[in-house]
Amino acid sequence: xxxxxxxxxLVVYTDVAVEHDADFNAWYNQEHLPxxxxxxxxxxxxxxxxxxxxxxxxxxxxxDSVEALQTDEYLRQRDNPxxxxxxxxxxxxxxxxxxxxxxxxxxxxxxADTLGRGMAPALQIGRMDVPPELEARYNEYYDTVRxxxxxxxPGCLHVRRYHAVEGSPKYFTMYEFEHEKxxxxxxxxxxxxxxxxxxxxxxxxxxxxxxxxxxRRVYPPRAF
Length: 224
Known about the structure:
Helices cover 33% and strands 31% of the residues. By secondary structure, the protein is of the alpha+beta class. It has 2 domains: 8-104, Alpha-Beta Plaits (2-Layer Sandwich), CATH 3.30.70.100; 117-219, Alpha-Beta Plaits.
């Protein structure tokens, strides 16, 4: 079995002007993603486009661990961008780019089925700041109540939660879906209405702008 999941993520969000779409997408798909996946510790990757929330584009890299970003090969790639990369980078900076690194906190380990699974057809991403005094109860509720309930819903393949090692906000939740319509189903909405997170933790937490976002995979291409 080829290992495709590790204990960390590199996540890059970008907003790019529509007139630069062709060059941006060609660069990412043909050069940048393959280059990064050639580095040790980069296990898998995919690109997504927002259907709800934002930023518009999302690239998710599955890392064996955060140490993948310290290898000689990755640092060589980072410090020696190609000519195409140098041309595209200002477009990303102009539109807005967010680069975050995360380490996995739930589940504590990945089972065999998870380790070999490829990138999901769709994602729902939550990026949350939680007041320190609420963190313990927030984590308890998410891991013992919210996540087990959502995993029973049709189309929800997996849920993983992370802490930021680089970037903010601190908490990152990634729902992996069979398709992007899962959070529009009656079952999902019914479960959302029953959720009592705020009452249980005794307060509120804040979402980053554009969160929660629902994303459809655009590369590798989907069959549907």
